[in-house]
Amino acid sequence: MTRKQKRTLWRIAAAAVLCVVIALLPVEGLWRGLLFAVPYLIVGYDVLWSAVRNILHGQVFDEKFLMAIATLGAFAIREYPEAAAVMLFYQIGELFQGIAVGRSRRSIAALMDIAPESAVVLRDGQEEEVSPDEVRVGETILVRPGEKIPLDGVILEGRTTVNTAALTGESLPADKAEGERVISGSINLTGAIKVRTESVYEDSTVAKILELVENSQEKKAHVESFITRFARWYTPCVVVGALLLALIPPLLLGQPWAVWVKRALIFLVVSCPCALVVSVPLSFFGGIGGASREGILIKGANYLETLAKVDTVVFDKTGTLTQGSFAVDAIHPKQIGAEALLDIAAAAESYSQHPVAESIVSAHGGDIDHSRIGQVTEIAGKGLRAEVDGQTFYVGNSALMEQIGADYHDCHLVGTVIHVAREREYLGHIVINDQPKPDAAQAIADLKALGVRKTVMLTGDIQKVARAVAEKLGVDEVHAELLPGQKVEQVERMLQSGAKLAFVGDGINDAPVLTRADVGIAMGAMGSDAAIESADIVLMDDKPSRLPLAVKLSRRTMRIVNENIVFALAVKAVILLLGALGIANMWFAVFGDVGVLILAVLNAMRCLGKVE
Ligand code: ADP
Ligand code: MG
């Protein structure tokens, strides 16, 4: 509880005690009213004050205004205990809601806890403790066991285990040795390591995640903005309704004023929309918070809403459904030796971020002399053109070979074939193979079980490989040999036929598709910047199995939101009716309003919890 909340609690307690005492006193008439005004003001002075202030600012119709006129009206018709009680319960509801919001915020803040406070840099052999944003790229930082890794980088010295639970939801610590990458925001558990930084703090994984989570509050779901708009016209309507209820029967039908004014006030109290206004955003807030604990970052409530309705899931292959680290199966050179072929390919690929490139470089294993490499141009979805040792080489798939007119030939082996040509002279190919991720088949089965109608795989790789992978994983539909632009076309075609479509990719050669889909979901938040930026949802640990989990989480959130809307409106409608008919009294109204609020908030808090 914050200081202010504690103070409110004391005010509520004091007012409650006073109310009970005054109710027992044998005072009647105006004195009784004056006495009840004391607890009323103690607990409600701030509500009255902000109602006045809002009126001065031209915002007349909010819930504080409703409460102010309802309670003042109750005083006017001499329902003193009721007036004080309405205010008292309203404040209890407010306090409760404040605590709930605080809790959700804290669970997101727990994620915020990944923010490193400082970094130890080695400068001229001296350790210097600085703020993480003062460290430059290429400097060496020292991270001791138990400390947070402040910046992304590569281990220069030492070995350790790191815990990335706060970032990825992955609870198993991972071993890291010299030469391996570590990610800012993870916790160094066992050994002291020296790390050469690869980015400034602003571009680091941790800074990006924090920014993303903070901004997620700004993107509202449709229901959420609907509720806000709803409250905007609803409240004035209620006030007008209450006025009519107070005026018409006495004026036109000669009914007693006291009865109808009282009914109008009850009407006002019950119709306060706070249960909706509060619980709907709180549910989304909780849903996003709960998901982030599972390593699923959702950039806004609107995406949660869309994800719940998705019926088609389209996957990229390499790096998304497969591990993206290829093993070299065979090297089939022409003209030159096998080693020379691998050497050229590795040199040409050494600047590329593509999984194919990284695999070829690691298969080569040795050091690559960067001075050998001239200009490199990536040809998206096909491969690349690179100057190595002063000559021009093309490394890529058969489409690339056709494009340059090289006389290539296919391989009898099943696998991704990477052809190499010097200008137009064919030098042979390297056959590489990629394994599906261990949880990919299960993820696809789970999506099916959740009622996703169709799963599709799109890839730039060759038909043979694509079909083999699709069959292993149980994907319904495959489209292979696609350029990045053709992936977009495929997705547009499915969107046109009315699919609610999620695209899952790694951000390499598929960033445009991520943007085009109803929801873009990125794997590989740890690597590809394009992914984190173009995607709406990021799966931090690259595991396809997070996807069915994300769908479940989003559906649960939507279910809870809808439950709250229906429940709140239904209870209110009933009490309104009873109130108008004179069956429900003020106490009924108070419990109707605050009770519904509290139940709705409690229900909304369920969004934060785990799903099975
Ligand atoms: P996917 O859709 O499976 O993620 P991409 O669209 O990224 O695949 O790439 C399609 C194909 O283009 C790859 O299978 C590979 O044959 C070729 N390719 C792309 N980039 C490179 C590269 N840097 N080096 C060699 N081949 C590449
Ligand atoms: Mg890809």
What can you tell me about this protein's structure?
This protein is α+β, with helices and mostly antiparallel strands. Among the domains are: 136-199, Distorted Sandwich (Calcium-transporting ATPase, cytoplasmic transduction domain A); 299-321 and 437-552, HAD superfamily/HAD-like (Rossmann fold, 3-Layer(aba) Sandwich); 323-435, Calcium-transporting ATPase, cytoplasmic domain N (3-Layer(aba) Sandwich), CATH 3.40.1110. It is built from 21 helices and 22 strands. The strands form 4 sheets. Strands 10-22-21-20-11-18-19 form a 7-stranded mixed β-sheet, sandwiched between helices. Strands 2-1-3-9-4-7 form a 6-stranded antiparallel β-sheet, with no helix packed on it. The chain has a 6-stranded antiparallel β-sheet with strand order 12-17-16-15-14-13, sandwiched between helices. Helix 4 (80-112) packs parallel to helix 9 and helix 4 (80-112) packs parallel to helix 21 (586-605). The radius of gyration is 32 Å and the shape is elongated. 47% of the residues are buried. Residues 316, 318-319, 506, 508-510 line the site of magnesium ion.
